[in-house]
């Protein structure tokens, strides 16, 4: 019998993104359904980004700039690097796939913290690479364990800081220690900084500043979180010019759409909206953390726009919250049974959530 599908697909679990908010609201009969499960911006996109989308909509029949040149130039100026060191993607998810396509071959090893964002493992397995899981030390990335797992066949290490779903960071000293310990012929180190804009820990390290010393580092960022453009899927990677050249060789033409490019460019220019979004998230994160702690709930201190909260009987609590119009993520789905991952929302949403937890 003819074999049609690759055997490796049998071991791949499709990413579960959750049902569309609008469909779920209609099914539950709730007009004020609030999604606190996807780590979306509580303020939404910049008004400048919305205006840019409206202006560009009439040109939606035209192909976009295939290189995202204007966006990369603006990012390069902001970050202090050459545009040739930047690649734009259809969300950071696509960039993970580009790295795998460009670098991973059957027999390679890829070291991944576990649990972590599921696509790290998926892209490696699809290319026939072997995933070496490094268990978190409670909620922290264990860099000593990661280092011990590196072998001559290790092609890449994935790091996530702030970590999804634990919300913890890889601190400055340990990160530099790992990079230095990898020596003169290290594997690729992919540093996912999707949530960096919500971090206020002075021990957090800006990955881009490390590139001159560690040329096999690839830093991933996104407009989905701080810029509130999750629906448009715009991410970007920063590396050496050689790294970006290799990734461009496997990148599809026109991979970032017109509306996404202009919205991201406008969002980049609206620093006040980004500042306000960051301030709201940090303030509301502190409020929710304090109130949950006061009620006896345990969770790692968050440096992201969500909390990973230990709640015995989490699935039942999640259902109670859903019936009250609040969607949160079941921690079991992201490797943490008896936990809920709760996005930081506005004060009204937090008060509703706390009332449900109080039995109201």
How much beta, percentage-wise? 15-25%
Secondary structure: helix percent: 25-40%
- Total helices: the number is 12
Specify the CATH architecture of the largest domain. Answer: 3-Layer(aba) Sandwich
CATH classification, class level of the largest domain: Alpha Beta
The overall average pLDDT, rounded, is 95
Q: What is the rounded distance between the termini?
A: 59 Å
Q: How do the helices and strands follow one another from N- to C-terminus?
A: HEHHEHEHEHEHEEEHHHEHEEEH
- Here the CATH topology of the largest domain equals Aspartate Aminotransferase, domain 2
Shape: globular
pLDDT under 50 segments (min length 5)? none
- The Cα radius of gyration reads 21 Å
Major sheet summary line: 7 strands, mixed
Query: How many DSSP E strands?
Result: 12
Kindly report the spatial arrangement of strands forming the biggest sheet.
Answer: 2-8-7-6-5-3-4
Our count of domains comes out at 2
Q: What report would you give on this structure?
A:
By secondary structure, the protein is of the alpha/beta class. The chain has two domains: 19-44 and 272-357, Aspartate Aminotransferase, domain 1 (Alpha-Beta Complex), CATH 3.90.1150.10; 47-270, Aspartate Aminotransferase, domain 2. Helix content is 37%, strand content 15%. It has helices at 21-28, 47-56, 69-79, 91-103, 119-126, 143-149, 172-181, 241-248, 258-269, 271-294, 314-323, 347-357; strands spanning 34-35, 86-89, 109-114, 130-135, 154-160, 188-192, 217-222, 235-238, 306-310, 326-327, 329-330, 339-343. A seven-stranded mixed sheet has the order 2-8-7-6-5-3-4, with helices on both faces. Helix 2 (47-56) runs antiparallel to helix 9, helix 3 (69-79) packs parallel to helix 9 and helix 4 (91-103) runs parallel beside helix 5 (119-126). The longest helix has 24 residues, at 271-294. The model has no long low-confidence stretch (mean pLDDT 95).
């Amino acid at each position: 019998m003819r074999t049609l599908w690759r055997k490796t697909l049998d071991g791949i679990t499709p990413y579960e993104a959750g049902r569309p908010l609008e469909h779920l609201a209609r099914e539950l009969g709730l007009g004020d359904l609030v999604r606190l499960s996807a780590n979306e911006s509580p303020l939404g996109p910049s008004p400048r980004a919305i205006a840019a989308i409206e202006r560009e909509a009439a040109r939606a029949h035209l192909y976009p700039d295939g290189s995202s040149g204007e966006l990369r130039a603006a990012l390069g100026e902001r970050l202090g690097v050459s545009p040739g060191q930047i690649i734009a993607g259809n969300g950071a998810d696509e960039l993970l796939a580009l790295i795998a396509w460009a670098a991973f071959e059957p027999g390679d090893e890829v070291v991944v913290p576990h649990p972590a964002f599921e696509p790290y493992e998926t892209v490696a397995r699809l290319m026939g690479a072997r995933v070496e899981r490094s268990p978190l030390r409670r909620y922290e990335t264990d860099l000593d364990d990661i280092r011990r797992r590196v072998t001559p066949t290790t092609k890449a290490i994935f790091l996530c800081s702030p970590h999804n779903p634990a919300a913890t960071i890889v601190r400055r000293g340990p990160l530099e220690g790992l990079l230095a310990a990898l020596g003169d012929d290290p594997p690729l180190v992919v540093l996912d900084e999707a949530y960096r804009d919500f971090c206020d820990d002075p021990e957090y390290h800006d990955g881009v500043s490390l590139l001159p010393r560690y040329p096999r580092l690839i830093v991933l960022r996104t407009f989905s979180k701080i810029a509130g453009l999750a629906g448009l899927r715009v991410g970007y990677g920063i590396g050496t010019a050689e790294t970006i050249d290799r990734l461009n060789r496997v990148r599809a033409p026109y991979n970032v759409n017109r509306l996404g490019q202009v919205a991201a460019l406008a969002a980049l220019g609206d620093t006040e909206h980004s500042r306000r979004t960051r301030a709201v998230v940090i303030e509301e994160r502190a409020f929710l953390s304090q109130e949950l702690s006061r009620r006896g709930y345990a969770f790692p201190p968050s440096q992201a726009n969500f909390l990973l909260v230990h709640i015995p009987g989490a699935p039942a609590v999640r259902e109670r919250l859903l019936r009250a119009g609040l969607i949160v993520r079941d921690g079991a789905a992201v490797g943490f049974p008896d936990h809920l991952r709760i996005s930081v929302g506005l004060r009204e949403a937090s008060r509703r959530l706390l009332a449900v937890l109080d039995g109201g």
